Amino acid sequence: MRALPLIPLLLGGWLTVPALAANSSPQASDWLKRLAQAEQQQSYQGTFVYERNGSFSTHDIWHRVQDGKVSERLLQLDGSAQEVVRVDGHTQCVSGALVPGVANTPEAAARVLDPLRLMSWYDLGVAGKSRVADREAVIVTLTPRDQHRYAFELHLDRQTGLPLKSLMLDDGGRLLERFQFTRLDTRDAPSDDQLKASDICKPVAQLTAQAAQPATGWRSDWLPPGFELINSSVRKDPQSKNAVSSLMFDDGLARFSVFVEALDKGTAADIRTQLGPTVAVSRRLTTPKGEMMVTVVGEIPIGTAERIALSMRAQDAQAKK
Q: Are 31 and 138 in contact (CB under 8 A)?
């Protein structure tokens, strides 16, 4: 999860809490609902720092909710110039290192945080209070019930419910990622000029339905409990010209993607790497369709990603069993 632009954290409906939620706090659920409402109702602007793998960057953000439309602009203030402009969750333009490979699908799945669903895989709690960016905050924790996902600590603004600080932690309590506001203004909505993209921000292609067909040829023999397929597509790789099947899975908070591509006659090495919370695991797979390379990318433990990669199967292989 990203607690910031990062956040299109849109909470779903609230239902009766079942027995499996006994270790979760109703108060924490209420705060998560406030977080979702704030993202869709509260305009703000500010500055935040982002830390991953010991590297820091500073960003300005402008977020405006007007006439039911959510507009957002992000600008990195240090290092290479990077900018993103989004409207209702769809990227309009990007700059710098973000440009390659960014495109919007016509039916991109919006992230929906449902506390009831999360209680099946995380214990929700309130751990006290804090102070961030000169604002009072409540600390909400999400502790995973298994080894296949990470823990989160959210510091939510008492006044608005906005995330002032977010920490992602591994099973040993080590910091994987930090997002933290240093300045937050919720009084003045961003102006049209502040939301306007600069000249370096390049428009993002809107993919047509014909360009991105659903990926129907692949399935996984094993997934971590709670993860469900939320989106799939098949596109041509602009370099190799091979068809690449892409499948995205979600547990209501964390996400990962699986990419499957036919191997050319040349050799391709397996990959196993991690940068902060993001892992990338590639494995060769022999299938009825030939030699394939399966790559899993997402914010899940590396052992979990490796098991997912090795579990991918061609759909027609299942039919023959």
A: yes
- For residue 139, the enclosing domain spans 10-203
Q: Kindly give, in sequence order, each residue whose CB lies less than 8 Å from that of residue 178, ignoring residues fewer than 6 positions away.
A: 49, 50, 51, 52, 165, 166, 167, 168
Give phi and psi for 77, each to the nearest 5. Answer: -95, -15
**228-284: pLDDT as tens digits:** 999 888 888 777 778 899 999 999 999 999 999 998 766 678 999 999 999 999 999
Beta bridge partners of 142: 124, 152
Q: 């469900």: which residue's tokens?
A: 228
Query: Rounded to 5 degrees, what angle do the CA atoms 84, 51, 10 make?
Result: 55
Instruction: Please state, in angstroms and rounded to a whole number, the distance separating the CA atoms of residues 129 and 139.
Output: 5
CATH number at residue 117: 2.50.20.10
Q: Which of 203, 227, 248 is the last residue of a domain?
A: 203
Whole-number Å distance between alpha carbons of 118 and 213: 30
Domain count, the chain: 2
Is residue 1 situated within a structural domain? Answer: no
Compute the CA torsion angle 141, 303, 294, 55 (nearest 10 deg).
60
Residues 194 and 121 in one domain: yes
